[in-house]
Write a structure and sequence with these properties.
Elements (H helix, E strand, L loop, with lengths): L3 H21 L9 H14 L3 E2 L11 E5 L2 E3 L13 E10 L2 E10 L5 H18 L8 H14 L3 E2 L5 E3 L6 E5 L16 E4 L2 E3 L5 E3 L6 E3 L5 E3 L2 E5 L4 E3 L8
Antiparallel strand pairs: 1-4, 2-4, 3-12, 4-5, 6-10, 7-8, 7-9, 9-14, 10-13, 11-12, 14-15
Helix pairs in contact: 1-2, 3-4
Bound molecules: magnesium ion (2 copies).
Length: 249
Amino acid sequence: IKSKREIELLKIAGNIVYETHKYIKPFIKPGVSLLKLDSLAEDFIRSKGATPSFKGYEGFPNATCISVNNEVVHGIPSNRKLKNGDIIGIDIGAKYKGYHGDSAWSYKVGSVSREKAYLLEHTEKALFEGLKQVKPGNHIGDISNAIETYAKKHNLGVVRELVGHGVGNNLHEEPDIPNYGKAGTGPILKEGMTIAIEPMLNLGTHKIYILDDDWTIITRDGSPSAHFEHSVVVTKDGYQILTGDDNFG
Ligand code: MG
Ligand code: MG
């Protein structure tokens, strides 16, 4: 549970992450390299007086994680160029005066297949299904179960090995927030908690593996994967998104 002062800093950090997503979105086009997107994001974050949370985190080399098509999360930006029809997940973290914002969003590159559009639409909706469960007195399992139920209804595979988390002056704090589980189980939400909820859903099965770079996670069956994440604060009667529009004014 965070103090008022901490929540104010988390709002600033979250807003920087949100602004970074908005800033790089117009550059996501066929022909742009992942490293170009990464350096645009890093420069933007630093221009706001923050530092990229991921750079150097457990040795991660870049400011952002960029995961293309069958890559689930933790893709390392390379000189690979985006092609029409790709989808990319960009995970961005920014640290401001010691406090982190964390938000991932998945984007279309040019025009994408109907299947990929379906995956993006329903992974984003799964995030908001999870968010609807965020209020004091509910359990973490209520969030997990809402995401899993929505994903299953739409025939999407729920990645199990990676989870949402608390967020504060550490990028990853307690509690874990799985994207599957039983309603009414796990820690109880309280006003002032700050958490990141992040469904990772696959068009195929839930199975994944890690590439030899020890970072990039890809789907086992080669199917496309999407990732949407917001950091939020639990309020008196619900939640406020720290990494989105909610956080203005
Ligand atoms: Mg993230
Ligand atoms: Mg996260």
